[in-house]
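Why do we bother with a discrete structure alphabet at all? Because it lets us treat a fold like text: something you can write down, compare, and reason about line by line. To make this less abstract, here is a complete entry for NAD(P)H-quinone oxidoreductase subunit 2. Read it the way you would read a sentence in a foreign language you are learning: slowly, and without expecting to understand everything at once.
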Amino acid sequence: MDFANLVAQLNTGTILPEGIVLATLLVVLVGDLITGRASSARWSPYLAIAGLLAAVVALYFCWDTSNPISFLGAFNGDALSIVFRGVIALSAAVTLLMSIRYVEQSGTALAEFIVILLTATLGGMFLSGADELIMVFVSLETLSISSYLLTGYMKRDPRSNEAALKYLLIGAASSAIFLYGVSLLYGLSGGETRLSTITTNIVANNGEQSLGIVIALVFVIAGIAFKIAAVPFHQWTPDVYEGSPTPVVAFLSVGSKAAGFALAIRLLVSAFPMVSDQWRFVLTALAILSMILGNVVALAQTSMKRMLAYSSIAQAGFVMIGLIVGTEAGYASMVFYLLVYLFMNLGGFACVILFTLRTGTDEITEYSGLYQKDPLLTLCLSLCLLSLGGIPPLAGFFGKIYLFWAGWKAGAYTLVLLGLITSVISIYYYIRVVKMMVVKEPEEMSDAVKNYPPIQWNLPGMRPLQVGLIVCLVATSLAGILSNPLFTLANNSVARTTWLQPATMAIPEKVAIAESQRIATEPELSR
């Protein structure tokens, strides 16, 4: 068999974006070995960013492909996976923009950091389209192991080492739990690994009701909940976020979370449709706990990174509403929210990185009076935090409105009302930071702001950070006002994904049946 026939059989054109990322990774790795650390630091980050943007362009051209199935069914490059892969690639590109100065100032090797980050991006992109159990697990472990390495990358910092150790131990346990659930799924299906055929085999071998499938579901949800940092599987999040390098935290909060939600949609809808009521019940409990605990505990935080950690836990609870309702609008609202969450969350972390580089602290009280010394940083951080809180007309407001509207339309009234209440709570701790930066009198400035260094954008690595800051600022501001293209993209990504259609059609039927039963049991008022 020649090479051309092999490529045709595997349909490798579907994974062209991943191929571009892989080629970029190898060029950075080999180039660093050849040119040396000092030389490669000048060109490797820009090559990596160019490669990631080229992968996003390649994803655009994969949108209308007639045959998205690749690697003999192991990978499905459908429209939904394209959007998730784009979110992960963009999050890695913005993370690289804000990493250059941070990594160089810490005295560690930049090219190695880029290689590990691109490896994590590659794992997340493959995970978003994995349609077979072995590929799901290999992709998940590629993302996870790279994340452990990134977390402990600042090896001279004891907090980074502690965060990496905690992340590794809890992550290894969650991977083992997830693998046990997947192995149960494999056994119940009679040795089938393709997600699309697992359900058929399970029903044929065991019938629709099986204790084994429920046990497998519990273990699988535990593994997914760890990846998206949902309560009560969130214990690693605050410590890892506080101790890790801030650019790594930024990537974990967006790229890793997007990959986790992509896995949740594909695995739960494809492999567990016979127990859909059960997994929706479990996810409802996780969403309620995440929204309450994430927002309430964030009120008491004194560190910006820990506050954003609990904020990301709460945001995961909001996004889970779209997955729970299971309608076309629900899945589309998830996609839309992750698209806008990408820029507003990364923008917030870019501001934290810039403030830390200039002052050496991330304590919330040290932001007092920042507007007097750095108006651009104050404006960007204020808009990103207000967008996370859902203040109109910023992007986060429209994202939450879409999520809550999809949930209300599907009858998830409790979740929507709880989401509204906890959103109001979140506004308090976001506005507290904004108030400190803007309202404080000059004499009430913190010591860090009083000793604020002169703003110099011409230092090595500062221009890319400035570009990342402005991109996030513009996207967060305009994505809300000009949200129609993103709405269209989110809706089309769900409408074009064929395997989601049976699931989205079943939910309205259940709602209609329940509504007709309620009307039939009500007494006729006219009598």
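What the structure line is telling us, in plain words: Residues 508-527 have pLDDT under 50 and may be disordered. The first strand starts at residue 69 and ends at 70.
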